[in-house]
Design brief:
By secondary structure, the chain is α/β, with parallel strands linked by helices. The strands form four sheets. A five-stranded parallel sheet has the order 2-1-3-4-5, sandwiched between helices. It has a five-stranded parallel sheet with strand order 7-8-11-6-12. Helix 5 links the parallel strand 4 and strand 5.
Amino acid sequence: MTSPDPVSILDDKALAARVLIVDNDAAHAEAVAESLAREGYECSVATSGTEGARLIDEEVFDLIITDLVMNDLDGLEILRRAKAAQAEAEVILVTGHGSIPSAVAAMQQGAFNYLLKPLDLKQLRTVADKALESLRLRRTNAELNRRLDEKFGFEGVIGSSPQMQELVDRLRRIAPTNASVLIQGETGTGKELVAQAIHQNSPRKAKPFVALNCAALSENILESELFGHVKGAFTDASTDRVGKFEYAHGGTLFLDEVGDMPLATQIKLLRVLENGEITRVGSNDPVKVNVRILSATNRNLEDAIAAGTFREDLYHRLKVVTVRLPRLTDRAGDIPLLIEHFIKQFAARHEKTVKSMSTAARRRLMAYDWPGNVRQLRNVVESMVVVDYDEVLDLDDLPAELAGPVEASGEATPGTLAGLVGRPLSELERLFITETLRFTAGNREEAARLLEIGERTLYRKIKEYGL
């Protein structure tokens, strides 16, 4: 019986691994390559350090095995070039007994391992397998993190409504760029959360995200906050101070309520956006800055331009891309998701046990107009969690503005059954399911919860009644 070809029974991942062997001793290099090729690795051989360095610059390898002592470029130089050009690749050094200290030093510079001459080919294959397994693990983790970023990278932007799905799709396309973004929306719609999501999903995410509210500061203080100042620039300037632009260098600067920025400051901001330089208050020396600008406002800036309170040229600089956030009542179907999110968040923060929210309380929250948008809903849920004592959030936990009767709340009132008496039960069931779906803006999960039936049952009824 013929034994199977060793290559045919190998792991597919091992078959894909590319190995470079660098050694002045051509016979030794070929022996190493042959040994690893039997294990399914794709091997290339360089018989000088110079040739090895050229291949590292021109091709991609998973594993590099290099002799430490060579005539031209030594193994340490090969290691340095590999880490510079192909940081992901693992490097194994081969050394004689007399150069063990150098090999140990190489490991401190990022080598995976070192092997002593004369090589034990079995040991070589074992170490190579471990090096490639380490590489595969890193790649798997990187892929997992990429998928998590795709799934949870916009975790602050909660919602499954069409408006929010469209918003997240737009943010995914905007985030990887350096474009300035103007975020528009009413107070409380989550403009800063969107700005943070853009930053966290951009190449700048490892650098600072710096937020500044332009409406909360006087003109002089705002300029100092933005550009910094030098000692003696004004009465209280006792030391030099770095501004938000310098602090955010390499990262993202979020200018909230930019529509309230004074005209004089708008002119200085425009100059920064045009030439990439700031000048500290009280100084004449320009400082280069590399900052992505995200801005937000609840004002209509075109009206402000017409009124002469906002510069048109700055407006166009800030709005390379525009993002508009919907009001909470325009995406009412997301309210149940937001409620669940906030309950978990605040139960953990305040160390409270919350098992559920009553149907009556959910109806009250669903029916409310939410002039303060998501921020108001967030504050209401936090208040309910804090004051709750029986582990179920109910009407008695509502804050004052929601505690009284709410129009169109869906709660039973006297006389509402009069027109339903004598009608078929199936007709009533269809009516209640239809109205509940309308009440929850089509959110089937929430509708099933309110009707106190399973989601599968609800889906079956929707199909049965042709809803």
